[in-house]
Amino acid sequence: MNPPAANRAAGFTLVEVAVVAALLVPLVLVVGTASKGVVGAIEANDRAAETSAVAVLALGELENVLRFGRLGTLSVQATRADVLAGLAANVGDWCPMQPLSPRPGIELSSLTGERDDQALVLPAQVCRLMFVRDAAELANNADDDGDGLVDEGELQCTRGALTTKLLDGVELCTFELDTGRVRANLRYGKRGHGQDVERTTLHHTVYLNNH
Q: What gap in Å lies between CA 152 and CA 143, rounded to an integer?
């Protein structure tokens, strides 16, 4: 004879435990998957924020040089076409920058020098913004060093005798003169999770001083 329900020991039968387990396992899997998704989203946001911060710093330095630059001093390294046009004596010489002719680097006189306590204005100095390709890369539209980036290098800024790196992982860098303004076009990449490369494209226009 079975004991009354009130007198039975508290607990679960084997069947009840099996039913509860069957219901909980899918729920745990769903929660686990959702957690991984949240972590992935946070990591992606962190990478995006880091990328944005690097871009802001690079554009800030570029803006500083160009904004206080003198339009009449803009020059570029001569190509064969420039030599044939009589703009320079040799390929690689610095010559006046021509409108609507994108170049990987420019040079100009800019008011970015250190201020003297006795000076009323900032002294001008020669500044150079230049894309320098990595030694292991060729200009062949291919990933020669196997890092996922194509023809990459870095954007450098030279002020007087000091050269600093503004941005690395740069795959495309051009400066173009158009009606008193310089358009800078940049594309750079950064490796994310696995073998994926996250690319960012920047377009920045700065009007120069006419004097």
A: 8
User: How many residues in total does the chain contain?
Assistant: 211
> The pTM is what?
0.72
Task: State the amino acid at position 62 in one-letter form.
Answer: L
Per residue in 43-80, pLDDT (tens digit) is 444 555 555 677 778 888 899 899 889 999 999 999 99
23 domain-assigned: no
Select from 122, 134, 127 the least CA-distant residue to 161. 127
Which amino acid, residue 158?
Answer: T
Burial of 11 (0-12, 13-18, 19+ CB in 10 A): exposed
Q: Which residues have a Cβ under 8 Å from the Cβ of 74 and sit 6 or more positions away?
A: 96, 97, 106, 107, 108, 177, 182, 208
Q: Looking at the domain assignment, is residue 68 inside a domain?
A: yes
